[in-house]
């Protein structure tokens, strides 16, 4: 069956995203082993991508903070799953970057085993945001991770990073290429978002996509509650 590509978020969804990400965001847990995950609670959205894809930058752009993700990726914290509490409504999970050219095979296998165990077993994981650098070709490791996500049956959404460094025509071609790829993967959400953490391009769109998974805001009880 052909997947339809959903349209962009509505104004109301953009506002939901803005509100969510205007809230407090703080690191609350680092997991180095699969049996040391925080207890399940809030819905989770995890970020994955090759090292240097711009993962820390996009988490910082989303949350409007300069140092949030960097602080968590200092030596010792880089090889763990880092959990952030966003406004008590959602957990953002920063996954270790993959695709180190120099990493030994055993390191890669450890990464895969841990990620697969997390992805497959985490009942509160709503979506993986898979980051791809818009300027470069897809690597074998990106393809491996998409297959891993298919096998784990976790819905993933491809987000292109560093789009400020790609000319409009090349970006359009890249988006088409990645859309076609998404259609081939059972677990891929078909809508691609092009972003730049430098200029803020696409960031409010991504906030809106992520906000769909957050625990709804508590209504005060005084006004009328929405739908
Ligand atoms: N031009 C541009 N550079 C970016 C963007 N996002 C990240 N970078 C750069 O890419 C490099 C890696 O970014 P970082 O967020 O640390 O990547 P990570 O390893 O995936 O966490 C840094 O030099 C960033 O300044 C972007 O949107 N545009
Ligand atoms: Mg980083």
UniProtKB/TrEMBL annotation:
SUPFAM superfamilies: P-loop containing nucleoside triphosphate hydrolases (SSF52540). Pfam families: MMR_HSR1. It comes from the Bacteria. Its cofactor is Mg(2+). Keywords: Cell cycle, Cell division, GTP-binding, Magnesium, Metal-binding, Nucleotide-binding, Septation. Residues 41-216 form the EngB-type G domain. The keyword Kinase does not apply. InterPro entries: G_ENGB_dom (IPR030393), GTP-bd (IPR006073), GTP-bd_ribosome_bio_YsxC (IPR019987), P-loop_NTPase (IPR027417). Necessary for normal cell division and for the maintenance of normal septation. Belongs to the TRAFAC class TrmE-Era-EngA-EngB-Septin-like GTPase superfamily. EngB GTPase family. HAMAP family: GTPase_EngB. This is Probable GTP-binding protein EngB. It comes from Gluconobacter roseus NBRC 3990. The lineage of its organism: Bacteria, Pseudomonadati, Pseudomonadota, Alphaproteobacteria, Acetobacterales.
